[in-house]
Design a protein that fits this description.
alpha+beta, 2 domains, 367 residues
Length: 367
């Protein structure tokens, strides 16, 4: 009997309805995959997000190993110049390179350290020396590097950068949404439950904040404070709780006339306990749906502010910062815009589909 009651509970019915929403389930899987990739992916790409490869700048997306022959020759010429020598011959066989360096004066072997420092080559071994040290034959291991999404203007791996940026964008979306929920739910529940002049005054304050242009508000904050991730979180959370407050207030106005609220008053519970134990828990359905739809809006706001240079600042990065960098280099390297934009679009679409699915699953009129 207990199992039958549990199976017929509103939560169980909502979960069953959500499981039937294929779009919402697929969106949840995509979000889980993106979050997991952003969490552990940067350690699995083989590249540090800030590691630059000067000889591999603006590589297009490809599964081919780098450096290829053209970039290998350019890298050798650059490194030979630093060693104060010239490339006389270079024969590549798989991951091994037979390199011949020549110079007008004896070559200082200490300069060979530039080869492994480039991260394109391993530690060279001197196979032979002639002409009094002015000609060296080296056996140099060649590293095989992969950049599935290409590299940026500084030669940094774009996949690693997108995954690290996703941590910031998702964290901003979740933290700002959580702050907006805490403020909006508390504010709306108090306004709706107390009612009267207090409710009118509190909601007029909300209307006044609605009238304040968001970008102007952010610029005003930047006049007095230095742009930072924390400041952006404060700016977004300061305005995104307004919709939540209105949603919770509307629900509270209905709930405060219910019999269970009257019974709680008759038992002598204070208004604060009634709000915390009876009003707020019964608004969680609409709040959960609104929160799911609020996260993508916050992420989009963060991307918009970062695109304008008002959000995340170096050395941190986000999808908005990467999109801004890609927009500046769109003619020479369109992949720099496409990669972070694909992550952002996939996340926003998935969150919206999940929100729609939750709305249908939590609707008591659904079958």
């Amino acid at each position: 009997m207990t199992g039958a009651v549990a199976a017929a509970s509103p939560r169980a019915r909502a979960l069953r309805r959500l499981a039937r929403e294929r779009g919402a389930v697929a969106a949840l899987c995509v979000l889980a995959a993106i979050a997991l990739a952003c969490l552990i992916g940067p350690w699995m790409t083989g590249h540090e997000p800030e590691r630059a490869y000067p000889d591999l700048r603006q590589l297009p997306a490809s599964l081919a190993a780098q450096p290829d022959d053209a970039r290998l020759a350019a890298a050798l010429d650059r490194l030979a110049f630093r060693i104060r020598a010239r490339v006389e011959a270079a024969e590549r066989t798989g991951d091994a390179l037979r390199l011949t360096l020549a110079a007008d004066a004896p070559i200082d072997r200490r300069g060979l350290v530039y080869l492994p420092r480039s991260d394109l080559f391993g530690v060279p071994q001197v196979a032979s020396e002639s002409e009094g040290g002015r000609r060296l034959v080296l056996d140099v291991p060649v590293r095989r590097l992969h950049f599935p999404l290409g590299t940026d203007v500084h030669g940094r791996d774009l996949l690693s950068r997108c995954l690290v940026a996703g941590r910031v964008s998702l964290a901003v979306g979740l933290v700002a949404t959580l702050v907006a929920l805490l403020i909006g739910v508390a504010y709306g529940a108090v306004a709706g439950f107390v009612g009267g002049a207090v409710d009118a005054a509190m909601m007029r304050a909300v209307d006044a904040l609605y009238a304040l242009p968001f970008v102007f508000f952010v610029i005003l904050l930047l006049v007095f404070f230095r742009a930072s991730l924390g400041l952006m979180l404060i700016a977004i959370a300061a305005v995104e709780w307004l919709d939540m407050a209105r949603i919770v207030r509307a629900q509270t106005l209905t709930l405060r006339e219910r019999d269970f609220v009257r019974a709680a008053r008759a038992l002598g519970l204070t208004d604060a306990r009634i709000i915390a134990r009876h009003i707020v828990p019964n608004t969680l359905g609409p709040v959960a749906v609104a929160a799911t739809l609020l996260v993508p809006r916050v992420i989009l706001l963060e991307s918009f502010l970062s695109f304008l240079g008002l959000g995340v600042q170096e050395p941190d990065t986000s999808w908005g910062v990467l999109i801004a960098e890609g927009a500046r280099a769109i003619e020479a390297a369109p992949h720099m815009l496409a990669a972070p934009a694909a992550f952002l679009i996939a996340t926003l679409v998935s969150l919206n589909l999940l929100g729609d699915g939750l709305a249908d699953a939590l609707d008591p009129r659904s079958a």
